[in-house]
Inverse folding.
């Protein structure tokens, strides 16, 4: 097989992934907005097919056309109870949902995104995070984060840079696996709305990224849309720090999905990257050797063999 043919087959596989930029609730993140052009170029580079939902209501039928839906901070608009229920069902069925709020949370943006996120054990706080240890007043708005949970979306990430995000809260919700995966650095101060004015609260550790697994689907939440932008200060946009790689990881994790049968986990679908020489070798083996039917069997056999070998080694070491 030639490199070109391999690339074509890989492109065909990735082109089966459909990503939606939800736009029916006056979201800040719009597919035609120039500040998000490099983010959208990245989706094209990943060979994702993109779409837009512009007409409310956002139903489970509309959502089901997409593997991932990005909700980039609605402005002066709210999701109906029926839409919230449908998006919850969409995730349970295997969809990926990427929720982005912004500084000040729901009151400042005049939306009910926390009500939607709350279906998955996440709430956007009504605050703004600033760094009082910054060298300049301008840089106070920049939160540089390097405190991460060991999670897929943080794989290979050393730091992400966020501009004036709101923080998140997570809370236990039956039937869901919820985790905080990124945390604010020391010196982060919370400026919060008390119902009448903005009040500064002494520094503490804040959640800035959270994830949920529900049914066969997944949710990622973050308190800023500026992580997609490239028109802002280069210190905190899409190209800043490891932000681009972080977003790629988020999309890859949301696309990976689990399949249940009669309430039991049957299989987990993941996208993997193989070295070309290994790919061509195993492809030839599959053609000439009938021991394995496809790549799935090869990978499962290899991991199972490694698992049994490691377990045997640990038993020997324990003696």
């Amino acid at each position: 097989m030639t490199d070109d043919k391999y690339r074509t087959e890989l492109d065909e596989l990735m082109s089966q992934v459909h990503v939606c930029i939800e736009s029916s609730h006056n979201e800040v993140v719009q597919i035609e907005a120039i500040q998000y052009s490099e983010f959208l170029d990245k989706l094209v580079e990943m060979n994702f097919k993109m779409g837009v939902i512009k007409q409310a209501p956002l139903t489970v039928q509309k959502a089901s056309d997409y593997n991932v839906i990005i909700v980039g901070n609605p402005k002066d608009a709210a999701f109906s109870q029926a839409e919230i229920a449908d998006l919850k069902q969409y995730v349970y069925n295997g969809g990926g949902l990427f929720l982005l709020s912004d500084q000040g949370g729901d009151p400042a943006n005049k939306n009910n995104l926390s009500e939607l996120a709350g279906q998955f054990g996440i709430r956007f706080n009504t605050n703004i995070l600033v760094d009082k240890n910054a060298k300049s007043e301008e840089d106070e708005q920049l939160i540089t984060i390097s405190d991460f949970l060991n999670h897929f979306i943080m794989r290979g990430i050393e730091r992400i840079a966020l501009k004036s995000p709101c923080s998140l809260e997570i809370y236990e919700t039956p039937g869901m696996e919820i985790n905080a995966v990124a945390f604010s650095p020391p010196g982060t101060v919370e400026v919060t709305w008390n119902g009448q004015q903005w009040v500064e609260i002494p520094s503490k550790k804040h959640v800035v990224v959270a994830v949920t697994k529900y049914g066969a689907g997944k949710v990622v939440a973050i308190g800023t849309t500026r992580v997609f932008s490239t028109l802002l200060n280069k210190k905190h946009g899409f190209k800043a720090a490891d932000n681009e790689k972080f977003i790629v990881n988020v999309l890859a994790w949301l696309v990976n999905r689990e399949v249940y049968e009669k309430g039991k986990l049957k299989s987990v679908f993941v996208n993997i990257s193989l070295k070309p020489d290994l790919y061509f070798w195993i492809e030839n083996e599959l053609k000439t050797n009938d021991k394995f039917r496809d790549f799935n069997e090869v990978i499962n056999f290899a991991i199972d063999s490694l698992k049994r070998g490691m377990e045997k080694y640990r038993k020997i070491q324990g003696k």
Q: What stands out?
A: The domain at 3-261 is CATH 3.40.50.880 (Rossmann fold). Confidence is low (pLDDT under 50) at residues 5-14. The two ends are 48 Å apart (CA to CA). DSSP finds nine helices and 17 strands in the chain.
